[in-house]
C-alpha cells in the first residue's frame, strides 16, 4: 500500500512546479492583507465640531465662541458633539454683549449638533464617518461595521471547509476571490451605512473562504518539508506584504470610495492564475477522479523536467489515510475527559485573547500619536520579524515557554504605556509596536501548538473550535479600541492584562515539543499539575505532523 506522498516522491520537494505553486498561492493572499484592515482608513474619524450655520445672526466674536471647550487628552479642545444654544447666543450678540467678559460662557445652555458637523480634511478627504455622520450619538456604528466584517469571517469559516471538500479547492478559491472582489466593488457605490455594512459581511465571508482554500490547496500540493514553510512563513509574510500596501494606497488616495476601488481592483490580477494553479490532486483522488489527478502530476513532472513513471496512481494501491478518521467522533468528545476539557477551555481562552490583542492593536493605529499612515505601516512591518522569530522558536525551543515569553512581552509593554510621559510620543509608539510583535508571534505559534496538543481523532475539531474562539475575539476587538474614547489608556490596560493572563495560562499547558503526536484521547499529554502518563509505543513520531495536511486545514487567520 502506498500513500500519495510516496506515489509522488519522484517530483522532488522544490522544483519549478512547487516554487510556482508556493509563490502564486502566497501572492493570492496579498489582497487579504490590505482588504482585511482597510476599515482603519475607510472608517477613519477626523477631528470634527458642530456646524454653526452661516445664517445664524451672530457676530464674529460670538461665532468663534459658539463651541464649548472640553478636556481631552489632558488638554482643552473644542467639543466634538455640543455647542452653545444658538438662540441664546443670538440674543447676546444682538444686545452687544461680549463672551467671557459680559457673559459667563459656562452658564450658557448647550445643545447637540442640530445642523450637522464640519470635519477636518487634514488627514482624510472623506470616510464613511464623514459621509454618514457616524459621530457622537452614532459613533457606535463605526466599530459595528468592523465587527460585522468579522461576523462575515466567522460565517465564512463555518462554510469554507465544507464547500472546498464538496466542490474542490481551486473552484472555491476562485469563486470566493470573485465574491470578495465583486462585493467590494459594489461597496464603492453604497448609498447608506446599512448597505455598506451588509456588503462588508459578505466581503468578510469571501475573504476568509479564499484564504482557507489557498491555505489547504498549498498544504495538499506541496511536499512535507515545503508544506510547513508555506503554512508558517509563506502565507503569513505575504499577508503582511498586503498589509504594508494598505497605508501606501491610503496615503495617496484620501477619498474612501476611490480608496476602496483601488483596493478592490488588484483582485482582478488573480484571474490569470486560474490557468496556472491546478486543482488539488489529493482532493481529486478522494473523489475517485484518478485520471485528472494523474494528468496534473504528469504536467508537474514536465514542468520540473522529470520523466514520470508509466504508472503513478494505481487505485488498488493508494490508501486513503483519512477514510477512517473522525467518523465516530463529535464536538462533544472535546469534553469527554477532564484533561481534554481543560485543554479545550484553555485553548479557547488563549485564542480569543490573542485575537483581541492582535486585531485591537491593528485597528488602534489611527489613535496613536503621529502620522496615521506611518503608524499603520510600522504595525504591518513589525509582523515580518514576528513571523520569522516564531518560526525559529517553533523549530528550536519548547512551545510552552516560547508562547509564554511572547505573550508576557506583548502584555507587559502594553501595561507600561500608561507610565510613559505624555510628551514622549515615540516611546509610546515603540511600546505599542513591541506589543504587536509579541502578540503576532504568539498568534503564529498557537496554531502549531494547539494542533500538537489534540489527538488525531479530534485534531481538526479541536483546532476548529479554537479558531472559532479567535473569530469571536476579532468581533469584540473594535469595542476595545472604542473604549479609548473614554480613557486613552483603557484599551492598553485591558489588552495588556488579558495578554499577561494568557501567558500565565500557557505555562499550565503540557509541553509538546519533541513529544510524539497523540493518536487517541487517552494518549494526550496531561495538563501541568497532573501526573504525566506516557503515550503508548504505538504513537506516531511527531514528524508525522508535517505529513498530515489535516493539521493545517483550520489554521488560517
Automatic annotation (TrEMBL):
Record bears the keyword Methyltransferase: no
Residues annotated as signal peptide: none
Pfam families recorded: Sugar_tr (PF00083)
Region (Disordered): 532-557
Entry's localization field: Apical cell membrane; Basal cell membrane
Membrane association type: Multi-pass membrane protein
One GO cellular component, as annotated: apical plasma membrane
Similarity comment: family membership: Belongs to the major facilitator (TC 2.A.1) superfamily. Organic cation transporter (TC 2.A.1.19) family.
Protein name stated in the entry: S22A5 protein
Organism, scientific name: Corvus moneduloides
The encoding gene: Slc22a5
Amino acid at each position: 500500500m502506498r500513500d500519495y506522498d510516496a506515489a509522488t516522491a519522484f517530483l522532488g520537494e522544490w522544483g519549478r512546479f512547487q516554487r510556482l505553486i508556493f509563490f502564486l498561492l502566497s501572492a493570492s493572499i496579498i489582497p487579504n492583507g490590505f482588504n482585511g484592515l482597510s476599515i482603519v482608513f475607510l472608517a477613519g474619524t477626523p477631528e470634527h465640531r458642530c456646524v454653526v450655520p452661516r445664517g445664524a445672526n451672530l457676530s464674529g466674536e460670538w461665532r468663534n465662541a459658539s463651541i464649548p471647550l472640553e478636556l481631552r487628552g489632558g488638554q482643552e479642545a473644542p467639543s466634538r458633539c455640543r455647542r452653545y444654544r444658538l438662540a441664546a447666543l443670538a440674543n447676546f450678540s444682538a444686545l452687544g454683549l461680549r463672551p467671557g467678559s459680559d457673559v459667563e460662557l459656562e452658564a450658557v445652555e448647550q445643545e447637540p449638533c442640530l445642523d450637522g458637523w464640519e470635519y477636518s480634511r487634514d488627514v482624510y478627504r472623506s470616510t464613511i464617518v464623514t459621509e454618514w455622520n457616524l459621530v457622537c450619538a452614532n459613533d457606535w456604528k463605526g466599530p459595528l461595521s468592523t465587527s460585522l466584517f468579522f461576523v462575515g469571517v466567522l460565517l465564512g469559516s463555518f462554510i469554507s471547509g465544507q464547500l472546498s471538500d464538496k466542490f474542490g479547492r481551486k473552484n472555491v478559491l476562485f469563486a470566493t476571490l470573485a465574491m470578495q472582489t465583486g462585493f467590494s466593488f459594489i461597496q464603492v457605490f453604497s448609498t447608506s451605512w446599512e448597505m455598506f455594512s451588509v456588503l462588508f459581511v459578505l466581503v468578510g465571508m469571501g475573504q476568509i473562504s479564499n484564504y482557507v482554500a489557498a491555505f489547504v490547496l498549498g498544504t495538499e500540493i506541496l511536499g512535507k518539508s515545503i508544506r510547513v514553510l508555506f503554512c508558517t512563513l509563506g502565507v503569513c509574510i505575504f499577508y503582511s506584504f498586503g498589509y504594508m500596501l494598505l497605508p501606501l494606497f491610503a496615503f495617496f488616495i484620501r477619498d474612501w470610495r476611490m480608496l476602496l476601488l483601488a483596493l478592490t481592483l488588484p483582485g482582478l490580477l488573480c484571474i490569470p492564475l486560474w490557468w496556472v494553479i491546478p486543482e488539488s490532486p489529493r482532493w481529486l483522488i478522494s473523489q475517485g477522479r484518478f485520471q485528472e489527478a494523474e494528468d496534473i502530476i504528469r504536467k508537474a513532472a514536465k514542468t520540473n523536467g522529470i520523466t514520470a513513471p508509466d504508472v503513478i496512481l494505481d487505485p488498488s494501491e493508494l490508501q486513503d489515510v483519512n477514510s477512517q478518521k473522525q467518523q465516530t467522533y463529535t464536538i462533544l468528545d472535546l469534553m469527554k475527559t477532564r484533561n481534554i476539557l481543560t485543554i479545550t477551555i484553555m485553548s479557547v481562552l488563549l485564542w480569543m485573547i490573542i485575537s483581541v490583542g492582535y486585531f485591537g492593536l491593528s485597528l488602534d493605529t489611527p489613535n496613536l500619536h503621529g502620522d496615521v499612515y506611518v503608524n499603520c505601516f510600522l504595525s504591518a512591518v513589525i509582523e515580518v520579524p514576528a513571523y520569522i522569530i516564531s518560526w525559529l522558536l517553533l523549530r528550536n525551543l519548547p512551545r510552552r515557554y516560547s508562547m509564554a515569553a511572547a505573550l508576557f512581552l506583548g502584555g507587559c509593554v502594553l501595561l507600561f504605556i500608561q507610565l510613559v510621559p505624555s510628551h514622549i510620543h515615540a516611546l509610546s509608539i515603540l511600546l505599542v509596536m513591541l506589543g504587536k510583535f509579541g502578540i503576532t508571534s504568539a498568534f503564529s505559534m498557537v496554531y502549531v501548538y494547539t494542533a500538537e496538543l489534540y489527538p488525531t481523532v479530534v485534531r481538526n475539531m479541536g483546532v476548529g473550535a479554537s479558531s472559532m474562539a479567535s473569530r469571536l475575539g476579532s468581533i469584540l476587538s473594535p469595542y476595545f479600541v472604542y473604549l479609548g474614547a473614554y480613557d486613552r489608556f483603557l484599551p492598553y490596560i485591558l489588552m495588556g492584562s488579558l495578554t499577561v493572563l494568557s501567558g500565565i495560562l500557557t505555562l499550565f499547558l503540557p509541553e509538546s515539543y519533541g513529544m510524539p503526536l497523540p493518536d487517541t484521547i487517552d494518549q494526550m499529554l496531561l495538563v501541568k499539575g497532573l501526573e504525566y502518563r506516557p503515550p503508548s509505543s504505538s504513537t506516531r513520531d511527531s514528524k508525522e505532523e508535517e505529513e498530515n495536511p489535516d493539521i493545517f486545514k483550520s489554521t488560517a487567520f
